[in-house]
Amino acid sequence: MNIYDIASQAGVSIATVSRVLNGSDKVSPRTRARVLEIIERSGYTPNIFAQGLGIGTIHAVGILVPDISDLFMADSVAFLERLLRARGYSSLLATSGFERESKEQQVQMLLSKKVDALILVGSTYAGAGVDPEETGYIRRAAEQIPVFLINGQVEGENIFSCVCDDYAAMYSITSQLIGRGHRRFLFLTDSGSYSALQKRAGHEDALRDAGITPDPALSLRMPNRIHPVRDQLLERTSERTPGDVSGSADASPEAPLRFDAVIATDDGMAVGAVKYAAARGLHLPDDLEIVGYNNSSLSVACEPELTSIDNLLSEMCEKTVHHLHEYLSGDHDQPRQVRLGWRLVERGTTKRS
Amino acid sequence: MNIYDIASQAGVSIATVSRVLNGSDKVSPRTRARVLEIIERSGYTPNIFAQGLGIGTIHAVGILVPDISDLFMADSVAFLERLLRARGYSSLLATSGFERESKEQQVQMLLSKKVDALILVGSTYAGAGVDPEETGYIRRAAEQIPVFLINGQVEGENIFSCVCDDYAAMYSITSQLIGRGHRRFLFLTDSGSYSALQKRAGHEDALRDAGITPDPALSLRMPNRIHPVRDQLLERTSERTPGDVSGSADASPEAPLRFDAVIATDDGMAVGAVKYAAARGLHLPDDLEIVGYNNSSLSVACEPELTSIDNLLSEMCEKTVHHLHEYLSGDHDQPRQVRLGWRLVERGTTKRS
DNA sequence: TTGTAAGCGTTATCAA
DNA sequence: TTGATAACGCTTACAA
What we know:
The structure is a homodimer.
Chain A: H1 3-10, H2 14-21, H3 29-42, H4 48-55, E1 60-65, H5 71-86, E2 90-95, H6 100-112, E3 117-121, H7 136-142, E4 147-150, E5 159-164, H8 166-179, E6 185-189, H9 194-209, E7 219-221, H10 226-237, E8 261-264, H11 267-280, E9 289-293, H12 298-301, E10 307-310, H13 313-328, E11 337-340, E12 343-345
Parallel strand pairs in A: 1-2, 1-3, 3-4, 4-5, 5-11, 6-7, 6-8, 8-9, 9-10
Antiparallel strand pairs in A: 10-12
Helix pairs in contact in A: 1-2, 1-3, 2-3, 5-13, 8-9, 10-11
Chain A binds a DNA duplex through helix 2 and helix 4.
């Protein structure tokens, strides 16, 4: 069933059918009605490949995330897919992991699918900002189609970034905690991305502005998973145990960690800290205050519930899709950088200010 | 940059370039090398639409989920996307919500994109099994391309289902709990889908086989969200409070719920029950045992951690993609139904048997 | 082993 | 307002 079948059944040419299909106004109402009826009855739908061949696009947007099973990413994709669909775009989803090479590959893959635009979700795509070539593949992709980053920032022609003001959020919450008397902050992060660096900078600047020197030993990198974080903290805060000489030679004896507040760049790690506190018999928030990031469903699952910074993900997605749509509608003059606010959601792991 | 450019630069015909591209063995090594080098250098990639027009497919699979922000769905999509990509398929993701009409629409949408197969994730696509027309749109889609269901079951030509043996899982855990002396089970579910019905059937059959009559008042439908569940349980177990005469007239006074075990068809509700227990000052698992389903990350976030039934999602995804690939490779003789096992992950909300 | 040419199903440009 | 026809870029008989 193709356009020729419809045309012959309706007794018109394929051009007329095509016009009806594309809502051209240069078709008489009678003809339009007749054609529409036949299309309806036969259940005909245009062949998308032929359509794409002709006009070069099929209204599809590529969405790339490092890991869709991550709560934050899953939420992002949920928002994006719905918003895009509402505007008539379909979503091609791909996951890239965190390796540079596979990110490049996946971007290439999506480009080869002739998507109209690319949305990269997660600060991992911003790189650490040290080596500009780290994000070269994004700039090269942007020569072909607009690239939109969510929660990440890359400079370049045709590249549009939407981020949460992580620096300000971290500065603010750190200052609040300092105001409540805390001095030794454990800072937990799972990546060295742009966003993670911003968060750390906000945190450390707040410390410095309060006359506290950030202690590198209290800045830890961990996987964003509950049990590993709990276990590492238990291990590194315990008294040194004898035995275990089997380890590598450079295992210099580390001083046990001492801290009175924990700030994590993601809820997963923060919940790990909550578990650590429970295992140590610490009472939250009196003995220890803990703050997470992303306000995910984990934050209401743990006990006590986790105070977390909400980075207004839905707003980021909305703004991004809005600008994407405007761009594809012909207005290429969209803001290169959108920086949104944030919201502290106070729950049981912090005291009220 | 198209196949003609490559052909002329290499001094061959487009047919030869096409052969090189498609790995035909009827090309001399020398020619192949020359063509490949030019392709490499120019960064040429075939136009996917033209390719699709020619052969009718572009190796894409449509994945439909009701809600990608659900932990279970997100994990499913993560597995599926990776497995599909490993076999050379790209993933078109769509979300449908839970309404019949939008499910139909989205299936149509994916069909119109000419995907090679459809994967529907979640028991919502199986319907409740009452009205066969409820799943008619799936059977109609299956006339065009194979449809694979994960965690749902629909009978029909070209429809392949992969499910967890929810009935057996629920029968087993219920029997265990009965063996530990429980008699009054609160059964929580968030849907009336096939899977939910199977779970309930397993649960109730176990009760009956132990001589316990299932109490309909203890079978509750709730949203799969922590706080709403907690609050409803608190409300329905409390002493009747005065006032609130404003409600509807048919608000017959319900007896407060009494139960000594909770079984939920998803972790979200189970964690809600954990929260309820905490609010009531109940000690888990001594005063109350709770079992969730899906073994999601929520189960390790709450305190005490939640015993949950693991439905072997990764295996379901693997089997599904395997059969899908076999089917698309020409072997249409795949098992219509695959029923996998399950695993009880015991944590702090149950006693050890 | 290579080339020629038909066909895939649209859209869009001209003419009529 | 309509119709003929040329792209669009590829795959694949069939010929050479």
